[in-house]
Amino acid sequence: MPRAAERTLVSPAWVQDHLDAPDVRILDATWVMPASGRDPRAEYEAAHIPGAVFFDIDAVARAGAPKPHTVPPPDVFASACRALGLGSHHHIVVYDRHAGAMAAARAWWLFQLFGHAEVSVLDGGWDAWVAAGGVQDATPVVPRPRAFTARLCHPWLADADQVEKALGDGRRTVIDARSAGRFNSTEPEPWDSPRGGRMPGSVNVPFGDLMTGPHGAFSAPEALRETFARAGVDLARPLIASCGTGVTACVIALGAWLAGARDIAVYDGSWFEWSRDLSRPVIG
């Protein structure tokens, strides 16, 4: 069974109390859709939590892959972590400044995938930090390389064949994190996907439905369980999360973990890959 840090979510107060802890490292993992016009790295450089380094999910990815931010090989992930000053002994805290914890959830999942369970997410992200009066620092951070080992933990990851098998035999529930409009093919896909719609047999839990607290904080565990239940999701069964490109699927994975699920995989290819493979079934 996969494991994760005891403190999956941490508060701004917890981060403030641990800013100088030698075993804690903070990451700004902000990512936005390309069409947004925003520059997450520039925003980080203008103001960040003291000591935080910038974790770019598009850079810490498989080179040359057709899909953005595709899971990298373990050695690439480990090399990126070392360069950011992240050691295998560190407790890593991730935040972002978009939708509470969008790419932060992706970073959380990546560390789980590569065997580093000591990772937490700042609940409510940057907005919660600022609202709590947290210090906004523009001092450049020059990390000292540390030793980091990455090993792929396969239960956290699913491929297209595993998804299609789950859709066929019903032994795993496939959850789609996209909006209801995209799921039902009434809204356009933002990634030039050749087909809209959904995977037959999948269920829709828009990722934002899990983050209803202040500043996009996650809902309480009981509310999360109720949200999943309304969509027909049994958290005691194995789950596979999907979305557009594998980012908000990780919000589903994190939300399900907070709600008590422990058998959770993310389909990294998500709709970007599925819609381009014309052999895969689609409704819509």
From TrEMBL:
Record's subcellular location: Cytoplasm
Cross-referenced PROSITE patterns: RHODANESE_1 (PS00380), RHODANESE_3 (PS50206)
Pfam family, one: Rhodanese
UniProt catalytic activity: 2-oxo-3-sulfanylpropanoate + [thioredoxin]-dithiol = [thioredoxin]-disulfide + hydrogen sulfide + pyruvate + H(+)
Single GO molecular function: 3-mercaptopyruvate sulfurtransferase activity
Keyword Cytoplasm: yes
A GO CC term assigned to this protein in UniProt: cytoplasm
Enzyme Commission code(s) on record: 2.8.1.2
Keyword Transmembrane helix: no
Protein name as annotated: 3-mercaptopyruvate sulfurtransferase
Organism (species): Pararhodospirillum oryzae
